[in-house]
Amino acid sequence: MATIGQIAAELGLSKSTVSRALRGIPSISQETIALVQEAAARLEYVPSVAAAGLSTGRNHAIGVIVPSLNRWFYSSVVSGIDRTLAELGYDVVLFDLDRSQAAGTRLFARSLLRRRVDAVIVVATVFTPEELAELALLDMPMISVGPPVSGIRNIGVNDAAVMTAATKHLIDLGHRAVGLVGGYDPESLTVIGASEREHAFTRTASAAGAVVEPTWMLSGGYRSGVAKQVVLQLYQGLTWPTGLVCASDEMAIGAMFAVQQAGLSVPHDVSIIGIDGHEYSADYDLTTCSQDVQEQGAAAARQVVAEVEGAPAPYAFEPAEFSLVVRGSTAPPRHSR
Amino acid sequence: MATIGQIAAELGLSKSTVSRALRGIPSISQETIALVQEAAARLEYVPSVAAAGLSTGRNHAIGVIVPSLNRWFYSSVVSGIDRTLAELGYDVVLFDLDRSQAAGTRLFARSLLRRRVDAVIVVATVFTPEELAELALLDMPMISVGPPVSGIRNIGVNDAAVMTAATKHLIDLGHRAVGLVGGYDPESLTVIGASEREHAFTRTASAAGAVVEPTWMLSGGYRSGVAKQVVLQLYQGLTWPTGLVCASDEMAIGAMFAVQQAGLSVPHDVSIIGIDGHEYSADYDLTTCSQDVQEQGAAAARQVVAEVEGAPAPYAFEPAEFSLVVRGSTAPPRHSR
DNA sequence: GTGAAAGCGCTAACAG
DNA sequence: CTGTTAGCGCTTTCAC
């Protein structure tokens, strides 16, 4: 493995000159740069982040904490982060909390605390107070993507606004019997923002004089399969809502499946609207409140890198945009046609 | 940020002693160890991987290359890897090739080539010859998970065997008109192993004297939505297979959706079997060839770490296990009941 | 058991 | 435009 010193020796230059040439620092002559680059290529020189990092205190790596990778939202955010960071010359050090959850403690601090990363991006994770304290101790730029995490600056949509828009869409179509497939899952810490959404739903529905039976407030744990089960049960009963708001598209697809399986049709008998703008939503002809999740990750990545490199850290960010995408899964209820 | 030197000064010891105490090296007295640990905690000492790595040449980090994170298989493998690596004290440096694909070139070599990682795990990725050459240059332990990648040792199921088992299940039930929803997607490099599976399907079906119409060989690109579309089209035609093998559970769920939507019922009219053992398969009552994907990732992680730490590198690994899980989505065809 | 000293590969003043 | 000199924080012989 060639080092900067070997290149220097080879060329009869000093290490500093080689270092500068390699990094394209102004004050080096074009010929020297060419010489150094040629030698570096020939010797198959590979820079060492460790050495550079030790010297500068910069690792050129960002820690990304996710509660799990098995949800579209999380993996999309990570994709956006990763792509952006790659362009900026940073690496992603991944911390999947799914793993440690089983073990009881989630020691994400582990290598964050080994100064491996320059900053942290948190993706929609619920932390315990102890964990939050630990994170605060880190004392490096930190941004969360998705629903707000207390004490951490946040990039994401306004949960209440999104839910309100989704609910309102059904109301506007004429639905007065509406249900919610929410995400709250007491078993896990992986879900946040659930109650804000729930409130927005009830508020919007009630304001329009709609009926919201408590039994129509379902919990799908943000998982398609679970949503399918609970919705199937609901529609095998005697009364059911003509409109269903789902807190994620994955759950909405499960719900559509269940409604079909119950022998009813979407949107003829039941209208279903999701939230997210999942990559599958178009194929499933699902009406949804779409947001650019990858871009949210990318924005967080850009911001965090800017701060690492000295930019000021704003106190808060504008809520991310979302838009209602009307497709075939929603329609006026039967009676009002 | 406290360093080893400050602890040493604080205690009137030498850096070496502190270093040894911190790492639990034998030749240090218990009292010294206790003293050092106490001081380390008090001063909020945090070791620096960069410094340690510079000194030892070990980064305690493993590079993980994935073609995308938005598929259950990939993210599950990564979860398995991450959990295991965390236990072993290693970090995951993620390389999502999705990102660079857009840009035309996929520069995964970037920091692999900066000696940031000690080894590489590749998850079901198709590489160009140039990329493979670049990888080979890396000269560090490397293992792939999933379908075999040429030139890289592989952990995964035998694709042909799995497909054969799945097809045979339908044949055994009496199906003689069978179709395949495969994954081949000429647009992307993200899918491998597709043709092996296709062959195994045709071979098994033909051997049983089953009809395999060319138009029943569909391509779902390993995506649920796409599978839903192509299957819907198939079942809106005049003739269709009574049995459908899907190369992934995600596609199988899409297929079930489509069949329902076409007004047919699963398994009464059409039997559907998937491959993977997706977390949703039970909820969707999907028959599948299940494999422990997380464990495959974990196994790769363990092996790669062992090799980094000096263990011998076997030439090849046993194929991973899989098992047929029969659920409600498959049944004998109608006529033979 | 513990210490002293050298060095891992790079960057960063400070000179010239 | 280039070289010299110190480190960054840790590990590791080699001594004692």
Account of the protein in words:
The structure is a homodimer of 337-residue chains. Chain A has 337 residues and is of the alpha/beta class. Among the domains of chain A are: 1-46, lambda repressor-like DNA-binding domains (434 Repressor (Amino-terminal Domain), Orthogonal Bundle); 159-292 and 323-336, Response regulator (Rossmann fold). Chain A is 43% helix and 15% strand. Chain A contains 13 helices and eleven strands. In chain A, the strands form two sheets. Chain A has a six-stranded mixed β-sheet, with helices on both faces. In chain A, helix 10 (194-207) links the parallel strand 6 (178-182) and strand 7. The longest helix of chain A is centred in the first third of the chain and has 16 residues, at 72-87. The interface between A and B is large, with 61 and 60 residues. Chain A binds a DNA duplex (16 and 16 nucleotides) through residues 3-5, 13-17, 19-20, 23, 27-29, 32, 47-48, 50-57.
Please give a handful of descriptors for the protein shown.
homodimer; alpha/beta; 434 Repressor (Amino-terminal Domain); Rossmann fold; 5-stranded parallel β-sheet; 15% strand; DNA-binding
Using only CA atoms, what is the Rg of chain A?
25 Å
In the CATH scheme, the class of the domain at 159-292 and 323-336 in chain A would be Alpha Beta
Helical proportion of chain A? 40-55%
The average pLDDT value of chain A, as a whole number, equals 90
Shape of chain A: elongated
Q: What's the CATH architecture name of the domain at 159-292 and 323-336 in chain A?
A: 3-Layer(aba) Sandwich
* Main beta sheet strand tally, sense and closure of chain A: 6 strands, mixed
Hey, roughly how much beta strand do the residues of chain A contain? 15-25%
Order of helices and strands of chain A: HHHHEHEHHEHEEHEHEHEHEEHE
Low-confidence stretches of chain A: none
Largest interface: A-B, 61 and 60 residues
Q: Name the quaternary structure.
A: homodimer
